[in-house]
Amino acid sequence: MHDLFFLPSWPPSAGDLFWYGALLLAGEITGIAVHRWLRLPRLIGWVAVGLIVGPSVTGALNQQTLASLSGVLNVAIGMVLFELGQRVDLSWLRRNPWLLGTSILESGLSFAAMFFVLRLLNTHPLVAAVAAALGVTTAPAVVLALVRDLRAQGQVTERMLLFTALNSIYTFITVSILLASLAREYRGDWISILGHPSYLVLGSLLFAAVFASITLRLLRLLGHRQESQFICVIGLVAVAVWGAIALKLSVALALLGYGTMMRTFDTERHFVSLNFGRVGRIFLVLLFVLTAASLDLRLLPAGALGGLALVLARFAGKSLGMFALARKSGLTLQKAWYLSIGLLPKAGVTIILVHEVNAMYPQFGPALATIVVSSIVILELIGIPLASYALKKSGEAFEEGQT
């Protein structure tokens, strides 16, 4: 044995715990600096740290390390989608069916506009369809983080949250259905063509219903003890993420459905309205840093034209749908404009879906990633500050220090 066996090895290896701490510290400090000196949302600082440490810039985080940190990324996405699902009030949709009509119209028009523009650029029909479906969704984490950070509340804010949740549902279901076309082109067997999309959609929704029922039964036993419910819900969300991955279901659809069904099934109001507070903030910082780090910026030059076209078509479709039914749904045209801008951000879950499609159909993935990643980078740069601007201009946000 070496005489100095008790001394640490050099250089020391950086394990997962080190990276969690380092990324959390760097993200929060940079976020505060960006907010204080540039008057931009803290989210911009979190994204900047991720881009800098990712493989595309400094390479401090390589692909292997990102893969080892994916556990906390999945849990963070799960918590965001669960909380967003809790915001879906189906009774509001029943009282004002024009809200659902607006959501369907703006999503449908944005999908059609993006598909049409991508086909004009000679994009493969399947690539164009999946990219357009992914483009429908708004980034749930960005919307929730901005609403929390700005303490926003009001008509525009609530509709942003509702439409973000509904858009996510449309995207997950549409992408799952389009997988049937991918299976027909790349595999050709009927089990893959019909079975896989059905399993993803129906299996994820059934999984969500089972977890929601189990959770409510457990909460009846716990009573209205906020601390106990808080710990149990976080634990159940983590288990639900693991379960969805183990069963090869759609994590996004399962967790969003879990949150939505929890609210729908909870007629006796056993579930206390929980504020994830500081714990939620920790997961949000790590979510934005790790998501930004996973962006492959090398795809940006090749897909810049398609990405920009996708962004413009997406905004045009969402704005047109929003204005068309604004007055019928009880919204002024000015607030409809702010709401259209507020739905701009796109990242997070979209990247996860691109990776999932790429893993299943590697022949198809690169072409899709080139367009989608380019649009995400563009919307990371402009979508977050514009959504923050929209909430402030609508009069529903509070600057730091205001009460």
Helices and strands in order:
Elements: H1 16-38, H2 42-53, H3 63-68, H4 70-86, H5 90-95, H6 97-120, H7 125-136, H8 140-149, H9 155-186, H10 190-222, H11 226-246, H12 251-265, H13 277-293, H14 300-324, H15 333-342, H16 349-360, H17 365-393
Helix pairs in contact: 1-2, 1-13, 2-13, 4-11, 4-12, 4-13, 6-7, 6-9, 6-14, 7-9, 7-17, 8-9, 8-17, 9-10, 9-12, 9-15, 10-11, 10-12, 14-15, 14-17, 15-17, 16-17
The sequence of SSEs as H and E is: HHHHHHHHHHHHHHHHH
Task: Name the beta content range.
Answer: under 5%
Tell me the distance between the termini.
65 Å
Question: What is the CATH architecture descriptor?
Answer: Up-down Bundle
Please state the overall shape, judged from the principal axes of the Cα atoms: globular
What does the model show?
The chain contains 17 helices and no strands. By secondary structure, it is mostly helical. The chain is globular, with a radius of gyration of 21 Å. The termini are far apart.
Structure in a nutshell:
By secondary structure, the chain is mainly alpha-helical.
Task: List the main descriptive attributes of the protein structure presented here.
403 residues, mainly alpha, Na+/H+ antiporter like fold
